[in-house]
Design goal:
Layout: H1 2-17, H2 41-73, H3 78-91, H4 95-98, H5 105-111, H6 119-144, H7 154-174, H8 178-193, H9 197-201
Helix pairs in contact: 2-6, 2-7, 3-5, 6-7, 6-8
Length: 202
């Protein structure tokens, strides 16, 4: 009798303090999910993967910047070739009939502030501006591809970056305006998704 009474007391204390093992019950028998690993282990693994991906992207961008800087110093960049044409365009010259400037007038006007910088400084400023525009545009593309409130998975982000890396790096190295156009298109889609129809149309 004393043994049964002591066992009953232990069971009551176990229920009170949540100790399933004192009752001889497994967590599953008590209606709880068993702990299957250290807390936060998956989150730490995701952080390590994100850090590794960010480090690889940084190395790629710095490598492309070094290569582009060498090209720009040798005047083999598109923005360097356009520099005198942009200056003539702003002065009012017809650079389309006389010199075959490849971009619309609005782009020439937008790029004109770069011509006020030293040539190499203008080329590198244009390079890093396009890096920022590419990063924002890819972020918008990932957000638009998912339901509201549902962030894209790491695998999805990695796949998009890998697929877009070659054309983006090619445009960065040549100094063209394709990334700017990509940024403007994604800006319009992002504004449309958020109900800013007028801004998206403009």
């Amino acid at each position: 009798m004393d043994y049964l009474y002591a066992r009953s007391e232990c069971n009551e204390l176990a229920v009170l303090y949540g100790d399933d093992r004192s009752m001889g019950l497994t967590p599953a028998e008590h209606g709880r999910e068993p702990v299957t690993g250290a807390p936060g282990e998956g989150e730490r693994r995701q952080r390590r993967l994100r850090f590794l991906a960010a480090a690889l992207l940084t190395i790629c961008v710095l490598g492309a910047a070094t290569h582009y800087g060498i090209k720009a110093a040798e005047h083999r960049s598109a923005i360097m070739r356009w520099r005198p044409l942009i200056e003539r365009l702003v002065r009012g010259d017809d650079v389309y009939r006389k010199a075959a400037y490849p971009n619309p007038p609005l782009l020439g006007i937008l790029l004109y502030p770069l011509t006020l910088l030293p040539p190499l400084g203008a080329a590198l400023t244009w390079f890093f501006l396009k890096v920022a525009m590419a990063a924002v545009a890819i972020r918008w593309a990932l957000q638009l591809s998912c339901s509201p409130g549902q962030p894209p998975s790491f695998a999805m982000r990695a796949a998009v970056i890998l697929l877009a890396a070659r054309p983006l790096l090619g445009d960065l190295e040549h100094g063209n305006v394709n990334i700017l156009i990509f940024f403007v298109v994604m800006l319009a889609l992002w504004a449309f998704r958020h109900g800013w129809d007028l801004s998206a149309g403009v």
